[in-house]
């Protein structure tokens, strides 16, 4: 008699790849927080390893660093031997990670450009049928409807020899017009973004990276410019977002808005908008070779110039969506006044929901001509 089969619990072998993936997720978070400083990120990872035992005898931190180099995530810094810098592959990975973290719960939808309620030149067929007009392309002709019209209007015998298709029989299927959107994302890097022991700049960076990756993946024909503002305002590239740091700056919202509007004036798209992430009131203006600064309360000189720019943006049909990371009543009152002047939108949000709000508003604004 056969002894049959013996079954026991299956215990899979520990994989070094699993160890790498666990450490890599933490590393990507840490290198974002440290603004691309690989040494500091690895130092923090070592501390976490000591506290929580992330590595073992089979896969240690040395193995992880070697794998980072082999997989192309870090390179030796040529200017400083023995130190490392992140690669473009890591920069893209950080953006994708931010996209998954902030927009990970979004439902699947059609990829491509922005839909609009209008029909017109486009590459996606709609359900609307109309008569043929001079200038319509041949690939728009709906052959089924056109042949049916020919049969009804002229008839043809069984052999089909007397089939006739006239211009009046032709019908075309409309295509949906798709539009472009030009967006400027403004990020406040004033000192208040790290005051009181609260890190506000890291979540703001994640939102910016997620939005950039979203536009790149789903709306490649769109334009996205990113600027930062402190005492002054300047443009940065998307690849620079992981390295973004807060400076010893005041908040020159006027300079940020002026630069944003200058960038949008150069775009030929019908839809233009500004997203502004900030946690504080405007406190600074550029005057000649110096600055006018006042961090106490709402300085009317600074506020009035900011409101004037909000009105100018409205006249240019540029809505401004403000994401205020603060709960002070007098700051909310300023944002409400700013939003009313611009006829834009404002959200008073904690950082937890910031990414979702930005996406939702982006989705609404892009669907219509503003």
UniProtKB/TrEMBL annotation:
It comes from the Bacteria. SUPFAM superfamilies: vWA-like. Pfam families: VWA_2. InterPro entries: VWF_A, vWFA_dom_sf. Residues 110-121 have a biased composition (Polar residues). Residues 183-281 form the VWFA domain. Residues 107-126 are annotated as: Disordered. This is VWA domain-containing protein. It comes from Hymenobacter elongatus. The lineage of its organism: Bacteria, Pseudomonadati, Bacteroidota, Cytophagia, Cytophagales.
